[in-house]
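Hello,

I think I submitted the nicotinamide-adenine-dinucleotide job twice by accident. Can you confirm which output corresponds to this input? Input:
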Amino acid sequence: MELRELGGTGLRVSAVGFGASPLGHVFGDVPRDAARAAVRRALDLGVNFFDTSPYYGGTVSESVLGDCLRHAAVPRDQIVVATKCGRYKDEGFDFSAARVARSVDESLARLGLDYVDILHAHDIEFTSLDQIVNETIPALRKIKESGKARFIGITGLPLSIYPYVLDRVPPGSVDVILSYCHYGINDTSLVDLLPYLKSKGVGVITASPLAMGLLTDNGPPDWHPAPEELKSACRAAAEHCSKKGKSITKLAMQYSLMNNEISTVLVGMNSSKQVEENVAAAMELSTSGIDEELLHEVEAILEPVKNVTWSSGIQQA
Ligand code: NAD
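Support: Only one job matched these inputs. Its output is below.
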């Protein structure tokens, strides 16, 4: 598995990252044996980057990931573990300095770790971005100084949140950003922001190459926020691939992996089979390239909904 530099952090992360939200049962139940086997298989195939949050499954994802990593008995310095703070299933959003300080301790206890490699403020568009600039990031920097997190990041859906924050904090305050659903076959809008993020020295993580289930044969979960036109176009694209005996998921994975300016592609996985398929997609990309003909056909089907997204967060002042 290819390792890529993550901005200026010095971390080298696997091009395919393990998104652990499914381990919080957010896409359906996952038996513990299946979770452990998926994490074990990922490690064996060279995946070293794991992403979770206290929000996923109301803390279940963190606890299950912690259990799976302990069970795999992997040396701590061979994995890169990211979690988040500020978004909670029952409490909602709280990006106050006091809550994020408590949050990292709770996450470390659930994960069974002394430190996380990355601590993100999770979905910052749900609070005033000025609070993120003036209160949350200074609090995260203190956590970083304490050694409980090696690097800090911000996540969220609207791309405008990143320059807003990065232009207002001291240089080097934010190490990485995590963008989701903006670098895949149906939505490539993150690409326009990459030169800016590079100029700021910020590492770039993209998540949800399968558009949170839209680009799979099974389709998205009920809670998926996409507008119906996007859901039906993705369904048509998946059916087109399946009629040709091909996999939309493989194509979508490979598409997101093609841009080397993006350090890692976080894909949510809940079984060894999914791990094997997604790693195989990455390996095949590096040896044979993407199926250009199928890509053009799928791009044509998705053209009417290109970069269609949905709203997320509060109205910023
Ligand atoms: P995704 O696009 O990765 O899709 C996940 C879905 O695809 C799950 O249902 C999974 O079971 C399925 N899947 C995965 N591999 C498959 C395969 N080979 N064949 C068929 N189905 C397959 O969406 P995601 O899980 O939401 O995103 C990936 C990860 O990124 C998350 O787990 C999370 O860690 C992170 N993330 C973070 C944020 C944020 O910080 N705001 C937002 C979204 C995602």
